[in-house]
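Cross-check.
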Amino acid sequence: MRGFLLFLLLLSLVACQETGKSSPVTTRKCQDCHEVELDPPHTMECQKCHGGQSPAQSPEEAHQGLLPAPADPASWQKTCGSCHPKETKATEQSLHFSLARKINIVRGLFDLPPLTSVKELPEPEKIQGTEDLVNDLLRRRCLRCHLFYEGDDYPETKHGRGCAACHLLYAQGGLVDHRFQKPNDRMCLHCHYGNRVGWDYYGLAEHDYPYQFRSPLLEGEPPPRPWGIEFHELTPDVHLQAGMSCLSCHGKELMFGGKQPSCRSCHEFERPKIYHRPEVLSQARCSACHARWAFWDEGLYLVLHEAPDWEEWSELMVQGSSEVEEAVVSFLTQGRAQAEMKDKLSGRKRPGIWLLTLKKRRFERVHLGWDQKGRLSVVRPLGDLYLSYVNHEEEIIFDNLAPEKDHLLPYSPHTIGAADFIRTQKVLNLLGVKP
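Predicted model, tokenized:
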């Protein structure tokens, strides 16, 4: 009996010693926690692009030195550029990166000198003059869908930054997978939506902003707004109907710059009709006759407000900006809202929020004018801007500051179809070409 008790005592001591031992620390690799499918050319260790530590014993250790967005322009030379130096260097010279055309159109309207790149666009600490106001408009309201920013907070406007904006697929507000791919139209439309070239290719046009112009409820629910705005469905471009994607015409010039695509690259006229004679084709853009419809947004009133009356703006809460919509919804549901907006280049928030109204919004009718090369072109009132600034003390610092230049600017509507007979006659008359 005594021996049996001694045996039980020894057994319990051994058990206590075993349970007192510290359990071994488990080391894990990135993909033990993050399920990621890679494309064959990018089957490599995660830390090659993202940094961090792998394997690691804790999330904190694994994320030391982590680059969440390695394709961002701030990092892409040492990440993407370590394997693709030619592409990253060329991209920095492209219009998708420099945004020179976009920012210089707006700056030029207010007699501000042109810049070679968006990187030269100053970030105003305080609005003291016209240039500060225009720069703030560009940096905080206009540039919300390009390579430096991840896009508005809507299902189809979110995208990656830098290289990832065009080569990683996002949907429903998040990254679908980690397989790098050739851009498709869905990626293009993450930025080229709203009343600008891209949406019109698909036959889409924005609704007006006031509540009474928006879509009615469908079975008691508002219609889906994957791009944050409601839209009319019009006739899509004939090239889309033929199965052509954006990249069918737009190719290497998007990344590497160079010559823009031309209709004449595909369409030859061996025995041209009167409308396609050399004297017509040299003096008019093809869209002057072949655009089926065009955008017409007249009188864009933009006010930078540091203390807006949110109740008055509630009917205009849907205006293509998730920051504006979130602020109005916050006021309506919680009784308070912050009048602030993020700088889309630096990521810093500053006081004041840009609010937008329109004098008139139309589509279908095509207006004609002249481009910079003296060719007959479709035009729209892109320069019909009125900028205001109201500070926190309700003082009106700027009141409807407007350009003195012609507000009708040429553009290339992607709504191509059979030529309109009446308009082609008008084109011939304007050019002085006799049948």
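Residues 269-306+352-435 form one domain. The two ends are 125 Å apart (CA to CA). Passed to J.P. for a second look.
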